[in-house]
């Protein structure tokens, strides 16, 4: 099968930035992520996504679910069908567990218990793990930090206001550490087990991001302002588990 890649969505670009992709280049199987089913109807783009077998999800609005309660859970059923098509193929599934980009407004509205992150959603991760867990070789817990920026937008990147990106990658295994076993995930309390796992991972991410921002503020106070060249710093990359498709 390959890997699952977990990452918070704190940038306006709906992908891992080029700097992070360079770290994964030729290290992990082909990267896929769940797309909205409506994207398949966009000329050219839709055909390309279909040909590459990107997994799909069909979202329903709150208004639609209110008037048609029988549609609840249908999005996860669609996701399960998409996962079945991936069985036996060496791929990496990128999952943004928060489901939406971080903004201060969303953070306040959702009353997130985290300082730098939104609450992770369990449904998609649980579906992938329960459907493909027996073929997953590793889970990559990826944290991207933009020191001095809580949620940089495209213009921040375009005009060079983001000078540095810190990338931390942690390789996890089912049944090790805070990650539940496949048997637990597929059991009656599987959703709760995955929720508790994500909470633990997000707490660690939150503390790590806070430390990076704090260090950046201290450095800014003790050094003269200069025009720093863009750089990427990689920390915490596991050397014990190879990121291969074999």
Architecture blueprint of SSEs:
Elements (H helix, E strand, L loop, with lengths): L1 E5 L11 H7 L5 E4 L1 E2 L8 H7 L4 E2 L4 H6 L6 H13 L4 E5 L8 H6 L13 H10 L3 E10 L8 H5 L5 E9 L9 H4 L4 H33 L8 E5 L11
Parallel strand pairs: 1-5, 1-6, 2-5, 3-4, 7-8
Antiparallel strand pairs: 6-7
Helix pairs in contact: 4-6
Total count of helical runs of at least 4 residues: 9
Total beta strands:
8
What value does the Rg take, in angstroms? Answer: 19 Å
Helix content: 25-40%
Helix-strand string: EHEEHEHHEHHEHEHHE
Largest sheet: 6 strands, mixed
User: Could you name the ranges where pLDDT drops below 50 across 5 or more consecutive residues?
Assistant: 11-15, 238-246
- N- and C-termini, Cα separation: 9 Å
Given the C-alpha coordinates, what overall shape results? globular
| Chain-averaged pLDDT | 79
User: How many domain regions?
Assistant: 1
What structural class results from the helix and strand content? alpha/beta
Beta-strand percentage range: 15-25%
Cross-sheet strand order for the largest sheet: 2-5-1-6-7-8
As an assembly, this protein is single chain
Write a short abstract of this structure.
The chain is an alpha/beta fold. Helices cover 37% and strands 17% of the residues.
Characterize the structure shown.
This protein has 246 residues and is α/β, with parallel strands linked by helices. The chain has one domain. The chain is 37% helix and 17% strand. The chain is built from nine helices and eight strands. The strands form two sheets. A six-stranded mixed beta sheet has the order 2-5-1-6-7-8, with helices on both faces. A two-stranded parallel ribbon has the order 3-4. β3 (35-36), α2 and β4 (56-57) form a beta-alpha-beta unit. α4 (74-86) packs parallel to α6. The protein starts with a strand and ends in an 11-residue tail after the last strand. Residues 11-15 and 238-246 have low confidence and may be disordered.
